[in-house]
Recover the amino acids of this structure.
C-alpha cells in the first residue's frame, strides 16, 4: 500500500484505500473469502487464510496506523478482544496498574479473567502521575489508562505517565476510544500502545462491533501473534463498515464536540442537575490538561441527577430524541445508566466508592440539532 501524507481528514479518506487495482473501484472491496489461492506451497500474493490476513482488514489496519501515527495497526472483533490480546502478552505474576475509574468491561476482564490466570491488577483511586509512580513495583509491566475516563471523564496526563512507565521498565497503554485519534494521539505523547473500540466514534453509526491496537511493529509482535493464534479477528464486512465510518470522523467529531460543549454549559444551569462532568468546562479539574493534550473536548458528558428514584424513572420515560442504550460514539444521542449497564460488572460497593451511583447518567452526544437535544432534556427534566 502506498504511503498517504497530508492532513487528518485526507488520511482518513485515503490511507490504505487506494482504488482497487483489478477494477478501479474507489471503495475498498469486501474480500469475503476465507482462503486464497497459492501458486505453489507457501508462495502466495500476501494472503493465505483470512484469520491470518485479509485485504479489507489490511486496509483498515493501515488507515488506523496512519491516523494514530503508529507504524502498524491490528484490527480485532471487539474492543475487549483487542484488550485481551494486549493483556495476553503478559505473564502470570505481572502487575497492571489502572485508574479506578475505568470501563466496566476492562475491569471485568482484568479482575475476572486475567486475575485468576495469574495477572495482578491494581486500581488507583487518585490517578495522578505521582500516585502511579508510588504504586510501581518491580513486577509492574503495564500501566493501562483511559483519558477521558469512563464514566467520570477524568483527564490523565499521558506524557507524564509515559515517563513513569518508561522509567520503571513498563509500558503505557492508552484506551483512546472516548477521544478518537481526531482529538488525541497518545503515541505522539509517549504512549507505547493505543487501544480502541472501533464500535464507537471510529465506526460512528452504531452498526458494527470492532477493536484495534496501534503502535510500533516491535511492540505489536506478541499482539500480532495473538491475533492470528487466538483468532479474535473482524470479518471483512465489519472492516468495511469501520473504514466507511472513518471517512467522516473529522466532520462528525467537530459536531459532537460543539453539541456537547453547548449542552454541558446549559446543563450547568439546570436545578435538576447536581453536577456536570465535561472536560470542556473551565470548572472541570482536568480542563487545562485536556486543553493541552487534546484538540477538542469530545462528545461525552456525565451528569448526576437530583430528585431520587422517582425523578430518574420519569426522566427515562420522557426522553424521545435521546435513547436509553449502551455504547456511545454514534451519530445518534444516547443516555446510559452506568450502574446497571456499562459498569454493572463492578461490585456495588466498589462502584459506589468510585462515584458510580444510581443517579449518575452518561450522555453520548450525537450530531442532531442542538436545540432538539436541549429541548428533549428540558422536557425530561420538567
Amino acid at each position: 500500500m502506498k504511503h498517504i501524507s497530508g492532513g487528518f481528514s485526507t488520511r482518513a479518506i485515503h490511507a490504505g484505500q487506494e482504488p482497487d487495482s483489478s477494477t478501479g473501484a474507489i471503495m475498498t472491496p469486501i474480500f469475503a473469502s476465507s482462503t486464497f489461492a497459492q501458486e505453489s506451497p507457501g508462495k502466495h500474493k500476501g494472503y493465505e487464510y483470512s484469520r491470518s490476513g485479509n485485504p479489507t482488514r489490511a486496509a483498515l489496519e493501515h488507515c488506523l496506523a496512519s491516523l494514530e501515527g503508529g507504524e502498524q495497526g491490528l484490527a480485532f472483533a471487539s474492543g475487549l478482544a483487542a484488550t485481551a490480546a494486549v493483556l495476553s502478552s503478559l505473564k502470570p505474576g505481572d502487575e497492571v496498574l489502572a485508574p479506578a475509574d475505568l470501563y466496566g468491561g476492562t475491569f471485568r476482564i482484568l479482575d475476572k479473567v486475567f486475575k485468576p490466570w495469574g495477572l495482578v491488577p491494581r486500581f488507583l483511586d487518585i490517578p495522578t502521575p505521582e500516585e502511579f509512580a508510588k504504586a510501581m513495583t518491580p513486577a509492574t509491566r503495564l500501566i493501562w489508562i483511559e483519558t477521558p475516563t469512563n464514566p467520570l471523564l477524568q483527564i490523565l496526563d499521558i506524557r507524564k505517565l509515559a515517563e513513569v512507565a518508561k522509567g520503571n521498565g513498563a509500558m503505557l497503554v492508552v484506551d483512546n476510544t472516548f477521544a478518537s485519534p481526531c482529538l488525541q494521539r497518545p503515541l505522539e505523547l509517549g504512549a507505547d500502545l493505543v487501544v480502541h473500540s472501533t464500535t464507537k466514534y471510529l465506526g460512528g453509526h452504531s452498526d458494527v462491533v470492532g477493536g484495534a491496537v496501534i503502535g510500533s511493529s516491535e511492540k505489536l509482535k506478541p499482539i500480532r501473534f495473538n491475533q492470528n493464534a487466538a483468532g479474535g479477528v473482524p470479518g471483512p464486512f465489519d472492516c468495511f463498515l469501520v473504514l466507511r465510518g472513518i471517512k467522516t470522523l473529522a466532520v462528525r467529531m467537530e459536531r459532537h464536540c460543539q453539541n456537547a460543549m453547548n449542552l454541558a454549559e446549559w446543563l450547568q444551569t439546570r436545578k435538576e442537575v447536581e453536577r456536570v462532568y465535561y472536560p470542556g468546562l473551565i470548572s472541570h479539574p482536568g480542563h487545562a490538561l485536556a486543553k493541552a493534550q487534546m484538540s477538542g473536548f469530545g462528545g461525552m458528558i456525565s451528569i448526576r441527577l437530583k430528585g431520587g428514584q422517582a425523578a430518574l424513572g420519569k426522566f427515562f420515560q420522557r426522553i424521545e430524541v435521546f435513547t436509553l442504550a449502551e455504547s456511545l460514539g454514534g451519530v445518534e444521542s444516547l443516555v446510559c445508566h452506568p450502574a446497571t449497564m456499562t459498569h454493572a460488572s463492578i461490585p456495588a460497593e466498589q462502584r459506589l466508592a468510585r462515584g458510580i451511583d444510581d443517579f449518575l447518567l452518561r450522555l453520548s452526544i450525537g450530531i442532531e440539532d442542538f436545540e432538539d437535544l436541549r429541548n428533549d432534556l428540558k422536557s425530561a427534566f420538567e
Observations:
- The chain has a mean pLDDT of 96.
- Residues 277 and 283 are 9 Å apart (CA to CA).
